[in-house]
Write a structure and sequence with these properties.
With about 110 residues, the chain is mainly alpha-helical. The protein contains one helix and no strands.
Length: about 110
C-alpha cells in the first residue's frame, strides 16, 4: 500500500511538473513575442526620431529664410518710404514753382 501511495504522489508531482513546464513554455513564448514587439517599437521610434530631427532641421532652415526675407522686405519698405518722400518733395517743389509761375503771369 505504501508503494502505491508513493507512486500516486510521484504521479501527482510529475503532473504538476508537466503543468508548470507548460506554463513556463507559454510564458517564454509570450516573453519572446513581447521582446519582438519591443524591438519593433524601438526601430519605429528610431525612425520617428530621425524624421523629427529632419523636420526640425527643415523648420530651422525655413526660419532662417523667413528672417532673411523679412529683412529684405524691411529694406524694400524703407527704400519705398525714402523714394516716396523724395517724390513728395519733388512734387511739392514743382507745385510751388507752378504756383509762383502762375502768380507771376497774373
Amino acid at each position: 500500500m505504501k508503494s502505491e501511495e508513493i507512486k500516486r504522489e510521484m504521479d501527482s508531482i510529475n503532473e504538476r511538473i508537466r503543468d508548470k513546464s507548460t506554463d513556463l513554455e507559454k510564458l517564454q513564448d509570450r516573453s519572446k513575442d513581447k521582446n519582438s514587439d519591443l524591438n519593433s517599437l524601438r526601430r519605429e521610434s528610431e525612425g520617428l526620431q530621425s524624421k523629427i530631427s529632419d523636420i526640425t532641421a527643415e523648420i530651422s532652415r525655413m526660419n532662417s529664410e523667413i528672417t532673411l526675407l523679412s529683412t529684405e522686405i524691411s529694406g524694400f519698405r524703407s527704400s519705398l518710404t525714402n523714394k516716396d518722400a523724395d517724390f513728395q518733395r519733388e512734387l511739392q517743389a514743382e507745385t510751388d514753382a507752378a504756383t509762383k509761375l502762375a502768380q507771376k503771369s497774373k
